[in-house]
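User: For my dataset I need records formatted as: sequence, then structure tokens, nothing else. Please produce one.
Assistant:
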Amino acid sequence: MTNGGKQNSDLVEVLRTRLRCANVATFNNGTTALLLALRALRLRGEVVTTPFTFPATTHAIDWAGLTPVFADIDARTGCLDPAAVEAAVTKDTSAILAVHVFGIPCDVEALGAIAKKHGLKLIYDAAHAFGVEVGGRAIGSYGDISMFSLHATKLFHTAEGGALTFRDASLAKDLHLLHNFGIADEDHVAMSGINGKMNELQAALGLCVMEVLDEEYAKRATVVKRYRDQLRNVPGVECMLPGPGVRPSMQYMPVRIGPESHSDRDAMFNGMRQQNIMSRRYFRPLCSSIEPYAHLPSAAPQGLPNAVGLEKEILCLPLHGGLKDEDVDRVCEVLVAGSAK
């Protein structure tokens, strides 16, 4: 019932098939997985990353003894802008850590080309992107390592957990040591490590969730379509969705509340709270503005105009398979009314 048993080995095999990646490792949570990915790659110096993400992304860089360097995002997708990434690369840069925000894929081809040109490692925080495909290719096959969060808020989850997919099979040995206190065997501790192992209860839950995943995905797809249809012509309300050729994750329903709307994002958020509708201003605040990182030169707001703008406009609407048509309509009514006031 602790770790390393049949439930975990079965889950790893299921994830290999589902994520279409040969190299998969599981962890007790996504933050640990991302931190140990950075450690396994033996990085030094600076890592170019996004300010528009959950703090765990930036914290993992910091805890790995690296310096985050913020680059601006693409205003349309919310993901890192490749041009801003390349402009941020210096002689001290060792990696790019990009985030597939809301399951919307980064410009993987452009980022891959930049990483190759400058000899950098490319890591993806794919916490929101379980099951995403780009042109039929699995999202976890891009870059050197991708991290998937298996937290209970995600479409596929193990209550709490994380997973890595990685290109270089030789990383498996170090990842195993790193998440098992560095212990190689009863007589040998090979490196400094922590307890990052997924336990058997987590893995067993994941196997159960996998059995109903496709059904939940289909239900959410129906909900997302209804949101899109209802909000298509609402002034100042824009659904943020992946482009053509992308299989979406169905984990989030983000909308932008733009200047064409009479009410701003915060007014919409508060109006929903008054009606017991739980939306989220996600991500807020920017990682570049929080206390541990606001002092960094790359954190200056004037260098991150798209991120600053999106942080003020983004609102994630309720999304799960249990939502009924009337529930979606009620959420949309608040947005329509707020836009027209």
